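Worked problem 6 (solution included).
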Amino acid sequence: MLPISFSLNGQAVSIEIAAHTLLIDLVRDRFGLKGTKRSCDMEVCGACTMLVDGQPVSSCTTLAVDVHQREVTTIEGVTPAGGLSRIQKAFVLHGGLQCGFCTPGFIMSVTALLNENPHPTDEEIRHHLHGNLCRCTGYVKIIEAVKSLAAEHASEHADVV
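Solution. The predicted structure is:
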């Protein structure tokens, strides 16, 4: 067993784990955060996306020991108590979800994208979401949701002449 310490959704945690423990298993099974979904186990679909130090990672292929002394954010960490984040609201408003299985991974990837680049082009959005697969709704509505957030940010920060 190996002791690790890290920040999970803004809270300092310490735990002992087996060296082979995957991040998704640690978060879901030991901390009870079930929002992140397991799907392909091969770093292909994006359903298991979490942020480590603000960057999207596939938690199904990331060893938990690799997050020692780092910051991990799950879908629960970007969802405000009693409501939805602005990204989640945009997905609902623009029909960017159906079954919801892939949605947490998309939300995490979009969170990382908009934190890095609040005004992405269509090409940048598509590129940033290339690791997330959706079998229900396709990508048009998801891209519309992200574009609406970029437009919202631009209008909020426009200089008034």
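Discussion: The mean pLDDT is 93.
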